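Annex B. Sample input.
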Amino acid sequence: MNEERKEIVEHRLSRASKALTSAKILLDTQEYIGTVNRLYHACFHAVTALLETRGLASSKHSGVLSFFNKHFVRPGLTRGELGKFYKDLFEKRHEGDYTDFIEFTQERVIEMYKSATDFIDEITHLVEKETH
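Annex B, continued. Sample output.
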């Protein structure tokens, strides 16, 4: 992998970390819709970093989800639960952003935060394997 691609991967992982930090701040202030949005974007940036290790990209969020499933979940390079979680988070973020009167419970959002943290840790580990 060339240096430019490595820089992009590192930048995206940094953005994932920053979005996760933002999600925690929103969670602590009980802004659950915003938390879900930031959790999704944290995972999105981590997945785009992983895809970049193979020169894969999509201009659509649904395309990123599809590439992740096609190149990492289905071949068994990562657990199927990660694909399921990412798809669910994609849908919840969409609901939060575009559905009137949507609410998320504190319990559910705390669970999503923990799962997103684990997701990003696992994706970061995969990135390390892909880049070495």
